[in-house]
Amino acid sequence: MSGYGAEPALHRVALRDATLATALVVAAVWAGSRAGRDLDPALLGYLGATIVATFALTWRVSAFWRRLPSAFYGRALLTALRDPWRARTVFHAAAIDLGTQRFIAARSRTRWLAHLALSLGTLTSFAITVPLVFGWIHFAADGQDHYRPVVLGIVLGRFALDGGAAWLAFHALALAGGAVAFGATYFLTARLRRRALPGVTDPGHVLPLALLLFVALSGLALPASRNHAELFPAVSLLHEAAVVVLLVGLPFSKLAHVLIRPLQLGARVVRASTEWSACGMCGARLAPSVQVAAVQALLAARGARLAGHLQQCPPCRRRSTAAAQARLLGARFHPDLVDTSPQARVPDARPYTFGKVA
Amino acid sequence: MIGTLFVDPSRCIGCTACVEACSECPGHGGESMIHLDWLERASSVQTAPTVCMHCTEPACAAVCPADAIKIDPEGIVLSALAERCIGCGNCALACPFGVPIIHEAQALMRKCDLCYDRTSVGRKPMCATVCPSGALFYGTQEEVADLRRSRPQSHFVFGGETVHTRNHLMVPLSVGTVTLEPDATVSRSTAEQQLEEALC
Predict the structure, then answer these.
(1) Which run of H or E residues covers position B37?
(2) How many domains are there within chain B?
(3) Which of A193, A272, B102, B107 has the highest local Cβ count within 10 Å?
């Protein structure tokens, strides 16, 4: 399959952004872990993969959002965020589109439930593990039955091992893993059910889901295998290997769509515009004027000169094509409205006949 | 190898068989991708089916901010990828044939994909399978030339732009290129619009 990806020149700027972002993350890890003293040696593999993923993700996001069609909505989003009144529109759209993901519910309720579980589970997992991997948070034992959470080198209270806070701290990742396993299983099963359709079971679609499922299941197997000395190292190694592959491959897999979705907020901002263009033919509402102008500019940048036709609504465009054929055949549906000038018709056009079979 | 769809609106009898069959295509999820429009509802019963013409350089894909519209190696312009599409409507604005359907609540664009799941395995698209009048014919240039006194045309001039398409429109033998000027096409009065809305 081919498409319209980022232009080569954009990748140079994106490489600069990726280098800067990676440097910032490394500096934040260094500072947050007190010059590496709070880093957990068991998590260094995850740390390396996260830093690589930071570089690759920033590079992809930067290059993608700088593409001309994407940049229009990216700019609309940033401009709206600078205006307190319009920023409310953005936050509202973010709550609806990114928070509740209502647009997926409009596609399918079960798909929405599965996607919500998968996305929230994944984000929760990252929110828990990234600070641990970066050495920003660790837990210090305080006697036999208490723990002290240490955040950026600062001790923040203490909690009992048999309390609710301890239960949540030690099981939140398992709950998130369960949600990811449910979502990934749903989408994998849905794809396998439709395997007769072309492209549905392409590796590009199936492998990221299978990898997510494996990460979730192996993560759930970690606490289950901790009392089996012969099993735990193997499970731990498999889980780490799967997470590293997931992180490094994330920017290049279908899961990278999470980086594109915020553009939808830009689209909502544009659609909320009060100034709309009308169809030049029938007067129907067409689209926000700024969007019509942007699409014209985008096409013009590619050398396409469709300006006049972009002022028509889609139904009028469809009628125009059929009417052009009818005119070539000599049809006159409405003599007062059809252009019958000589240049609008071919000299030797045959009389129009309906349903003629040769 | 995927064949070509030949569209002849003058043959359309408005039976809506294509619309119903399109929704039965396994890849369309019960939704029809075909537009069936009246040309001049006030003065004629003539209808016209519109399917995607599958432009060789599709404007819809060029303006997509999410790069959601992919093109198959055989030139089939596919529906937007559900995980990418943000439902902005750029594609619907750019398409000179008025094909893409935007579901704003779903943030999703869908369009005719020439029944890709069928045509990619050598079967006909659903619409052409059921069209009783030959307004939608699927096959080769040779086959359609044997059957018709008109000829297939795939070059469309929109103002200053020539669009080349994979699917063809049937035109008189003498016509080389189909020219569509915005001001020279059939326009609708307010009364016609109201009548059409009432009838729809």
Answers:
(1) strand B35-38
(2) 1
(3) B107
- Looking at the complex, report in whole angstroms how far the Cα of residue A322 sits from the nearest Cα belonging to chain B: 6
**Mutate: best of A64, A75, A77, A103, partner B, most B CBs <10 A:** A103
Q: Provide the token pair at A134.
A: 């970066």
| Most B-contacting residue of A61, A100, A209, A317 (CB-CB within 10 A), to test interface | A317
- CATH code for position B119: 3.30.70
Contacts of B133 in chain A (CB under 8 A): 355
Is residue B122 a part of any domain in this protein? yes
Residue B68 lies in a domain: no
Indicate whether A333 pLDDT > 70: no
The minimal CB distance from B98 to the residues A270, A291, A314 is found for: A314
Contact A208, A10 (CB under 8 A): no
Contacts of B117 in chain A (CB under 8 A): 196-198
B89 part of contact set with chain A, CB < 8 Å: yes
A contact residues 195-224, partner B, Cβ 8 Å cutoff: 196-198
Question: Could you tell me if residue B98 is inside a domain?
Answer: no
Q: Give the separation between CA A323 and CA A313, rounded to whole angstroms.
A: 15
The token pair at A322 is 């059929």
| B96: contact with A, CB 8 A cutoff | yes
Chain A interface includes B188 (CB < 8 A): yes
Q: B22 falls in which pLDDT band (50, 70, 90)?
A: very high
Q: List the single best residue of A212, A260, A352 to mutate versus B (max B Cβ within 10 A).
A: A260
Q: What is the chain B residue with the closest CA to A268?
A: B88
Buried/exposed code over B10-30 (b: 16+ C-beta within 10 A; e: otherwise): bbbebeebbbebbeebebbee
Task: Provide φ and ψ at A309, rounded to 5°.
Answer: -75, -20
- pLDDT by residue (tens digit) across A48-100? 999 999 999 999 999 999 999 999 999 999 999 999 888 998 999 999 999 99
Supply the pLDDT for residue A350.
41
CB contact under 8 A, B147 and A358: yes
Domain of residue B13 covers: 4-54+115-199
Cβ-Cβ contacts under 8 Å for B159 (sequence gap 6 or more): A305, A306, A307, A308, A309, B181, B182
Nearest to B67 among A3, A339, A356 (CB): A3
The string over B141-178, giving b where at least 16 C-beta atoms fall within 10 Å of a residue's C-beta and e elsewhere, is eeebeeebebbbbbebebbebebebbbbbbbbeebeeb
pLDDT of residue A353: 39
Q: Which class is A8-267 in CATH?
A: mainly alpha
B11, pLDDT greater than 70: yes
Does residue B87 lie within any of the structural domains? Answer: no
Q: Domain map of chain A by residue range?
A: 8-267, 277-344
pTM attached to this predicted model: 0.85
Average pLDDT over residues A238-258: 92
| Token representation of residue B21 | 């069959």
